[in-house]
Amino acid sequence: MKPISAIARFLKGWSRGTMRLPEQTGNGYGKESLEGIPPSLIFEETPAPRPLPMHDMTEANLSSTVLPTADENALRLVLDTALDAVVVMGADGAIQEWNSRAEETFGWRKEEVIGRQLAEVLIPEAVRRAHYDGLAHFLAAGEGPLLRRRVEVTGLYRDGKEIPIELSIAPFERGGERAFLGFLRDITDRKRTHAFLEGQARRAILLHQLTSFAAQSASVEDALRQCLAAVCEMTGWPVGHAFLPTPREPLRLVSSVWHCQPGKFEALRTATEAIEFGPGIGLPGQIWDSKEPVWIRDVFESDNFPRAHLDKPIEIRSAFGLPIRSGEQVIAILEFFNDAVTEPDDGILLTARALGDQVGRVLERKHDAERQHALLAELNHRVKNMLAVVVGIATQTARNAPTLPAFQESFTGRLMSLSRTYSLMTSAQWQKTQLKELIEEVLSPHSDTRRANVRIEGPSVTLTPKMTLAMSMILHELMTNAVKHGALSVPEGRIDMTWRHAGNGEGPTLELVWCETGRGRVTPPKKPGFGMRLIETSVRHELRGNLETAYEPDGVRHTFTIPWQGD
Amino acid sequence: MATILGYTLGQTDSHAESVERDRTGKKRGENVRMAKPRAVVVEDELFVAWHIESMLTDADVDVCGIASHGLEAIEKAVALHPEIVVMDINLGEGMDGIEAARRIRELTGATIVFVTAYGDAKTLKRIAEELPGAEVLSKPTSPAKLKHAIERPPPSRH
């Protein structure tokens, strides 16, 4: 050791060899970090309470080399009653006093340590040299920045385990020799609590920022990208990836956006593209099923991480993933990868779950807005289409009506029929409607007497909205004609409407027969009227089917054959 | 004098008369009309299709075919070679009107006029990209608007 030259090295600390005092900032927290220790873990340093049992406790003495002298009785009182570990070290570095709290804190009994070098008992080997240098400096110069302050250092428990310690040291004279009175407090719990709170605060800020980012995102993909970047930043993990479920069955989880350095982790990306993920398959499938975050410590040891077992080895070891939920529905799955084996971190999983819920709510609002926009656009399309149909009905009815009253009657009848069909389709939420319900709707404006003469019979047949509109118009025209000129124009006339599932060479069909009887012989018209032309053309044009009309001795029979894909 | 795709409507065309005389070697009359432009209407709603047909007929256009879906539209356009195709966009199952119109323009060079309820920005952008110059009319359209659209000269194609 070189005592004089060591002055420059001063009491640099008792921590990890490179400890330095944090630069004070406005809020009292250190701006710079101790090497390996986050800035947040550096506590404000405050002057220690002045040593109680000393004589001559003047400011002048505290700041000079004139040291207070120990009153042994008072010193004993402090050792016996202090709530902290209290240790007295001589100028030679040997332990002179060691109270019962010190025994509890460090695991050494008093008789085991008295006379031993304090550095060997309490100070990690890596910083012992700094301790001796600092001691030498104080003995030579009479001052040291760690004295009479609270500092945080790392101490050694008996078993060699390092523990965080809050330390204050006061030099004094004892029996004419310089000595040091140290108060030491195990701050493991405080550190843990602080780290926990600090982590909570950081995650709360992350969640807040993420929610804001997600809300401002132009699309769901942008929101997911923000989310991936934020979690990667929080965890320090290099890769983030999002899956989106397919909107329709069969359910598949489709790769969406990635967050990683360009050109890196190509094998992982290729493997992800190569596998078709569904429920239960791999990490995303497992998350889909459980709707909970999942952590895989080592993907190569997992029995459900197929990407680790492809030809080209992937560059990752640990993975965790979480669902983004909207209510009970999983709307996306995020997964993150680390290139080192990483133990599960409850804090990260807790934050990930909260994050998934937050982003899920944002995405839900975004989805709602998009759905609302799409709904309004669809409404606009339907209204325009319907108006075009109404204009078409009006103009075509007018062109074929002999008189204004005839136009009014025909136009109103067609319009009301269209209106009832729209109501029927709306009640079916514009999904498929039952043929039987449609027929009942067409019959509804007619009197009970007339309806009693109509028989309808057939199996369950559902119609698409387009088929419903076309069939409604056809049935309306047939019914109008039957009332005016056909079977229902006489009391004894009847209509039998029957249908069945059939088929022809081109596929399954619906065969519907409209049979009018009781009217007597009907002769085919020389030129079909507008109503009949409408029916014939509509079957071909709108339903891509055909119509056969047979004029029989007791009436007329229309047989419609319409392509029908089933319910 | 109104013209539809270069065809003169309802008026004597002296040039047409002279062409007729040169081709036949005979003068067939003082007033010789050019043939009417012909159109195919592609619309799956029958009443709307008939209404468009009526408006075209009133505008002195010969509606030579009506189709209700994309494939039928292409078949009729190829078979009938109309100068004009009035096209709906949403044609139910199968290809939509934009795709059908694109193929028809490629195969026949017909002028495309869309009459559709889908006038949103995305649809218009797609039409501009796939069928530059095609007219788009919003449903329900009027005779005047339809007539104006088919009277526009066809977009130059290179």
Tell me about this structure.
The complex is a heterodimer of chains A (567) and B (158). Chain A is of the alpha+beta class. Chain A has 16 helices and 17 strands. Chain A has helices at residues 59-62, 72-81, 100-106, 110-113, 118-122, 128-141, 188-216, 220-235, 266-274, 282-290, 346-400, 404-427, 435-443, 448-452, 465-484, 530-541; strands at residues 85-90, 95-98, 151-156, 162-174, 177-186, 239-245, 253-259, 294-296, 318-326, 329-338, 433-434, 454-457, 462-463, 494-504, 507-517, 546-552, 555-563. In chain A, strand 4 and strand 5 (177-186) form a beta hairpin. Chain A is rod-shaped and about 140 Å long. By secondary structure, chain B is of the alpha/beta class.
- Relative helix content of chain A: 40-55%
Oligomer: heterodimer
Q: How big is the Rg of chain A?
A: 44 Å
Biggest beta-sheet profile of chain B: 5 strands, parallel
Describe the structure in brief.
The complex is a heterodimer of chains A (567) and B (158). With 567 residues, chain A is of the alpha+beta class. Chain A has helices at 59-62, 72-81, 100-106, 110-113, 118-122, 128-141, 188-216, 220-235, 266-274, 282-290, 346-400, 404-427, 435-443, 448-452, 465-484, 530-541, and strands at residues 85-90, 95-98, 151-156, 162-174, 177-186, 239-245, 253-259, 294-296, 318-326, 329-338, 433-434, 454-457, 462-463, 494-504, 507-517, 546-552, 555-563.
